[in-house]
Amino acid sequence: MKKLKLLSIFLAALMVLSLTGCSVLDKIFDMSFGEDDEPTVPAEDEPEIMEPIDPNWPVTAFGTEIIKAPEKVAIASPALSEYVYDMGLMDKVCAIADFCNFGGASSYSTIGSVRLPDMEAIKEAAPDYILTFAQYEESILIELQQMNIKVIVIDAPDSLDELREIYRQSALFFLGAVEGPTFGESYVSEYDAALSALAYSGEQKNIAVIRALDYMMITGDTMENELLSAAGLKNAAENYTGYTYNSENWKEFDPAVLFINSDIHLIDLEGSDLYKKKSAVKGDKVYNVDVDALGICSKRSFAILKDMLATVYSDYTGGTPLEPAYPSMYS
Question: Domain spans of the chain?
Fold first, then answer.
């Protein structure tokens, strides 16, 4: 009897609540969960968003670990700037050294030289890296470190093989571990093919390339001599070293053609007791070339070589024969 009575009371209460709407039920619900609480369903762990991995970086180039792609690079050595320019990798280069004279050099800002750095220009360029063939003074290095600039000192090439390695390492530095090796090897192959294509294959003549008066010339232990030999020019000083011809054997020195640096004039040779009796001087076979540019052994050097070959060999058609330095007093 009591159970029936309680059931009747409960049903009556439900009817009252249904007539009053949901507000009371809502309040009861809110009291159970709180105003801001919601019944929660355990969520699955969301996947962590990962940064895409660039397989090119890090990479080790020039003996230095490069963590990410260089954004701004300054090159403090003219020859190195020319190598990178020839490779077509100048898009990340923000400044170069003074005295660069390769094609297009004038379009880049300059940062002085290693011996006389322009610190204001370096600060303005704000490179991440400076590549150089020579070391800065300790005080300059400290200042560059305070500017968060990393200096990478590279050994200048003494042979064509070392130059080829600089091309490979430059590709790694600028392009990374995946793209760099392929590009570097491709450029080395292109370089070798261009050198092979310009070579003269006929009977060779003795020549000499004079860097300065007296006995200073390209000798057999130099990278330039490798270039001359590969092109088909027989160097009269190939048995000597250190850019110096042995004075004790000077009587033997009598090349058919002399190439002299641009700052030397034929009259200097004609007035020299060492040169005035040599066949090339007496026969007006003396020609001015840019010996410094030749010594870089870049693509620009190839153009100089072609003109030298066309001057020495009348049947060579790859270049344009040079004009004599100017008519000899013996003519």
Answer: 59-196, 201-312
Domain over 59-196 is classified CATH 2.60.40.420: no
Beta-bridge partner residues of 150: 129
List, in order, residues 6 or more apart from 26 with CB less than 8 Å away: none
Q: State the SS3 of 204-268.
A: CCEEEEECCCCCEECCCCCHHHHHHHHHCCEECCCCCCCCECCHHHHHHCCCCEEEEECCCCHHH
Burial of 318 (0-12, 13-18, 19+ CB in 10 A): middle
Residues whose CB falls within 8 Å of the CB of residue 328, separated by 6 or more in sequence, listed in order: 266, 270, 281, 282, 283, 284, 286
Query: What CATH architecture applies to the domain 201-312?
Result: 3-Layer(aba) Sandwich (3.40)
The pLDDT, as a whole number, for residue 264 is: 92
Rg (CA), the chain: 38
Virtual torsion, Cα 215, 217, 221, 222, nearest 10 deg: 150
| Cα→Cα distances 275→105, 158, 251, 292, Å | 37, 29, 10, 21
**265/259 Cα distance (integer angstroms):** 11
- Are 160 and 226 in contact by the 8 Å Cβ rule? The answer is yes
User: Is a pLDDT exceeding 90 seen at residue 18?
Assistant: no
* 59-196 and 201-312, same CATH topology: yes
Please say whether the beta carbons of 184 and 165 come within 8 A: no
Q: How far apart (Å, rounded) are the C-alpha atoms in residues 226 and 160? A: 7
For residues 172 and 234, what is the distance between their CA atoms, to the nearest angstrom? 36
* pLDDT tens digits, one per residue of 122-170: 999 999 999 999 999 999 999 999 999 999 999 999 999 999 999 999 9
**Element housing 280 (H / E):** helix 279-282
